[in-house]
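Sanity check record (used in CI):
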Amino acid sequence: MKKFNFFICLFALVLISCGDDDDAMVPQCVNPINLEESNITFDSVALSWDDLNNTNSFTVEYGLSGFEQGSGTTINSTENSLLLTGLTANTTYDYYVQTSCDVSNVSLWSEVKSFTTLASPVIPQFLTNLSDLNLFSGNLADLTPTPYAFEYELSTPLFSDYAHKHRFIALPIGTTLGYEDDGLPIFPDNTVIAKTFFYNNDERNLSLGRKIIETRLLIKIEGSWETADYKWNDAQTDAVLDFDGSVVPITWIDAEGDINNLNYEIPSNTDCFTCHQTFNEITPIGPRLRTLNFVKNGVNQLQQFIDENYITGISSSDNVSALPVWTDDSYTLEQRARAYFDIQCAHCHIKGGFCETQSPLRLDFESSFDDSKIFDQRFSIQSRISNFIPGFSMPFIGTTTIHDEGVELLQAYLDTL
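Expected output for Fibronectin type III domain-containing protein:
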C-alpha cells in the first residue's frame, strides 16, 4: 500500500513538473503601453498604443469618466490604433486597452487613460432656437461663450436704455480675423457676432439675478452679412428667432436704489438694417479695431487679441489709432464728445449711411470739425438729444429714454462752440 501511494505521488509530481514546463514555454501576454489620444474633435478621437507582443488582436473598453470596468463599451481592433466616433461633445471619457495573444492568453488591462471631447462647433445659421446654434456652453442663461469665441468690449459703447450688453465673436475653427486698417477687421465667412442685452434686477446686489431680453446676431454668409434677433423666454432657458420685434416691460433698481420702469423695444429686422447698413449693404458697427484698442483691467484689449492670435496681420496695437473713452477725463471734452457722437450717431450720419441725404452731419471721429457740420447743426443736435419724441429724437431708433449722462457731455461740448 505504501508503494502504491509512492507511485501515485511520483506520478503527480511528474504531472505538476510537466505543467510547469509547458507554462514556461508560453510567453506572457504583456498589456499595451504608451496609450495616446490625437485628433480629438467634438464627437471623435483617435487612440493608439504600443504593443510588445507582436500580435494583432486588441480590445478597447471606454465609457464616461469614472465608469466601472465591465460596464463600458468594448470594441475589438486588429491594429494598435482605433478611431472612436459617435461621442458626446464636451465630455470626458476613460478608456482601457487589452491585448489578446491567443484565445487562452490575454494580457492585463492597461492603465486607465482619459480624454475630453471638444465643444460642438457653432452653427452659423439662423435656426429657430438660440440653443441650437451652440454659441453658449452649459446653462444658456449663464451666457458662457463657446470655446470658439472671444468676448470683447468697446471703448465707448452704444447707449441702449441703460441695458447691459454681453458681446463676443465666434470664428470658424482654424480661422482668425485679418488686419486691414483701423476700421473693421477682415471677417472670414461663417463668423458670428453676438450681442446679448440684459438688466440686472438690482444693481446694488447682482446675486439677485438678471433679466435677459434679446440676443442680436450678425452672421457672415458667402461674403455678406445677415442679421437676426432672438427673444428670450420668461424662464430664461432659451431664445426664439424673432424678425418682427416686440416690446418687453422692464423693471430694475439702479445703483442709487431708484426703481426704473420702461418698455424695452426689441428691434425688427428692418430696424436692424436701418442702422447696420452702409451703401445699402449690411455691416457691423461696433468691433472696429480703434474701438477695441483700449486698456481694460490693466491690459490693452486689442493687444491681447493679437497675442492670442484672434487677429493676424498685425503685431502691435500701437499701429492702430484709439477711439477715446467718453467717460475718461484724461481726454479733452471735444475728444470725448466726438467719440460719443461716433459710436451713437455715425453709423447713420456718415457717407453711405441712412441719414446721408437727410442731414449734412458727418459724425464719425475721423471727419474734421468743419466737415462734421456740428457747429452748423448745434441747435438742432441740442434739441433732438434733449427730448424723447418718437420720430424726432436722436438716436432715431434703438432707445426709448434719454441718456442723461451722454446728453450732459454733449451739451457741455456744444456750449463751448
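The chain has a mean pLDDT of 91. If this sentence no longer matches the regenerated C-alpha cells, the check is flagged for review.
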